[in-house]
Amino acid sequence: KAGHKLGVNETMWHMRNHYEGTWLDPTRDVGAGAWRSPYRPGEDLTWEFGDKQYVNERFIGTNKAAWNFVANQRPTEKFGVMWFGVDDSSFSLHAPIYGVTSRLPPSWYGGNCTGRAACREAFGLPGTINSFSLQAMHWVGQLVAAQAYGRYEEVAPVVQGELARIEGELFRAVEAMDERVRQGA
After folding, report:
1. What is the Cβ-side half-sphere exposure of residue 164, based on CA atoms within 13 angstroms?
2. What distance in Å separates the CA atoms of residue 105 and residue 94, rounded to the nearest whole number?
3. 141 and which of 46, 72, 86, 103 could share a cystine (Cβ 3.0–4.6 Å)?
């Protein structure tokens, strides 16, 4: 039996997990390097040395993700909320999107283009897979994560502190909007 019901914020932080503090903690083995990084260079989870094959665990917060989300149905509220994030969930800001949302800001909108440059350009969306733009949340997420990968022990705590602060503000904004919806505004 579960010890308690997981909340949305707790779920988001579990999605940033690298098994820290367990015997699978990748920040404690030789591959972590000087910055105690959970990330390993290369494309595969397996690697060879001599005549033996080894495996790196696939942790939850991975740099191999394109997007991530936590969906919250909220039966006591009028609308559900999806907390959406781009790229690696370890460093991804989760933004609340109500289930009745019909438009997104251009920085978050993908136009159902799945990275196709011509499609994004046709929609007038900022940034493509080959064109960096600070107006595209994908590229902002990539930039932040790339800084943290290289100096993980030093940068990751700062990034995660900012994520906690900003997401805290977003949780309060959702509470305020929920109250307005309940009041019929």
Report:
1. 9
2. 14
3. 86
